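Q: Two folds, back to back.
A: First:
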Amino acid sequence: MRRLPHWASRFVPRTVRARATAAAGTVLAAALALAGAGLLAAVHAELVASAASATRQQADSVAQLALQGRLPAVLHTGHGTDFLQVVDARGTVLAASPNLAGRAALATEPRTGSLTTDQVDPLYDHHRQRLTVVAADTPGGPVTVYAGASLRAADEAMDITQAGLAVACPLLLLTGVVVTWKVTGQALRPVEAIRAEVDAITGQDLHRRVPEPGTADEIARLAATMNAMLDRLEASGRRQRQFIADASHELRSPLAVLRTQLEVADTHPDQAVRAELVHGALADTDRLQNLATDLLLLARLDAGGADERPRQRIDLTDLVATTVPARPFGPHRRTTDLAPDVTVEGIPLWLGRLLTNLLDNAERHAAGTVHVRLSTDPARGLALLDVEDDGPGIPPADRERVFERFTRLDDARSRDHGGTGLGLSIARDIARHHHGTLTVTPSAAGARLTAAIPLAADPAADA
């Protein structure tokens, strides 16, 4: 439409309904035109062929009589033949049908065959004639037999057919256009209902859904897809609101405690008490700093920040072997069982954060031992990182809930140990951004969390 002149673009249909109707009308008009032309050609060919066959048979019969010397002076026409005439080489009429009695020889070339002509009109009916010319050698010399038939009936049949087509084709075209307009409008009515409903949905109305027609067609699938998208948007909005509420609560509590400690420390006369209060304020500040860091990291993960950072090949064995011993000494014994040369593709800083969060969680709940195992699953092309503790374990009903944000199965102990309830949620998001998974897997005692990360492709195999 942009390439059309301004005045011409106004005549181009702009709606889907109008374009579909125009296209259907154009195709139907072309089909009717071709069908009408084919019908007229077939009727004309059939009528002319019938006339040619009849005149040919009559001309052959008269030629046989001439060859046998039994040519009568008056020839009687048969079915499908209107006139007959036999002329010798000098142009003398030897025999003729009664309607050509006394007439001169037909002014045609003396050649055999059949032709349709309007130059010969012996009956004066102003119609074309189908004329068959047959030459014969008789005992009295060569003669030419003319057998003809008027195509008046054929012309009348063509006129009737043309008149019928002139009436029927526009009616059929109009019927097709009207039916297409109605059917297209009915088919697009659910689309308009979907559009109107989506247009009315705002950020506060994500609970609304578009109407789904009871048909199993493309529009029904479109409506189902739209509703599924609205489900995801509503769930995302609900999670975001819950996340904001939880974050506000998590920030409010340490801020209130920190303010109270600083106010008391500012007014308390005892220096020892003031030092203790300042020490507690510093601990709460650290907790606030950790919480802010976790919230910023979650925001980056939600915004797809991991996809924007360059990936590189990482020796996961070396990353685990250096991260575990580098952690501050604690009351728990740490053991490792690492497969050699396990390589993945990803972001080293974030994979290190994943391992750190798993170790923090394990040490928070372990009774005495934390075990880290790194292995591979060549059949699935995965690196498996297991972090297991010998603590009380995770009940089956809570094995998915522990990955929700701000979830603590033991709030009091988690707060005392500095937990924000975001560690496992961040670890799972990091695993997902590396096209992997993080799940709670069955363990004989305690809890075991398994991160499955795709192995890096072998450069030698790619080469």
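A: Second:
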Amino acid sequence: MTHSNTRNPSAVHHRSVQLNGLDIFYRESGPADAPVLLLLHGYPTSSHMFRNLIPLLNGRYRIIAPDLPGFGYSSAPSHKTFTYTFDRLASVMQDFIEHLELTKFAIYVFDYGAPTGYRLAMSNPEKITAIISQNGNAYEEGLGEGWKPIQAYWKHDTQENRDALRGFVTLAGTKFQYYTGVPDESLIAPEVITMDQYFLDRPGSDEIQLDLLRDYKNNVLLYPKFQAYFSTWKPRLLAVWGNKDPFFLPPGAEAYKRDIPDAIVKFYDTGHFALETHAAEIGADILKFLDSLS
């Protein structure tokens, strides 16, 4: 398997690396010697969520988009043998960036990718050239009503409260994530929902996702540390936000300006999965932002 991108930089390569017994799948595209952008997906999706964005950016940037453990085409060991926490996801991504020898890169974080990516940024502040946060939250005011049943589980870790969240991993729950706040639902490609649900329906996948929902409380507890990282290092930051996301609200995007006064915040008239409806606009804003770094 060759890793040379010189022949056709615009091709998207589908690769896999072995890290401590895990297969980590990733998409890679763009010139091998170009500045690197690491794309970190969220729930309940995978690097597939970036399929429309990658071709917009790979002319000038080397794009690397892994699937987190438990998602997409990466290994999804049982929650009885693998601890599904955000610390653990970040630890695997740390191994991943070291394996690929990424010494300088920008990160694009979305949803679960945010607490994963911000742990990476805190551990490797000298490697981070910029941050693009797409509905990737780091402030309590960004948490919407959708978190209420999950917060009940955080307060009382009972089987009853855990079982009350099983609707999240159903087809109805996935459709809610994709369609809520989207003015034109015909822009949502149905196969995206089918694919995400395929992975959610694998045996044991529900327990993996419920473990991560339980552990998300530790992300909220880390918000002050994320914010201290922002205010200390002042990374260049672009927030691109679907303004009708039921989980991560616009005040969560605006809050970045508290710690990074020159952060750029852009809103789009859509829901949680903003790339499904606004990839062209978001791609253009990212190029403008990244081009301004040099």
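Q: And?
A: DSSP finds eleven helices and eight strands in the chain.
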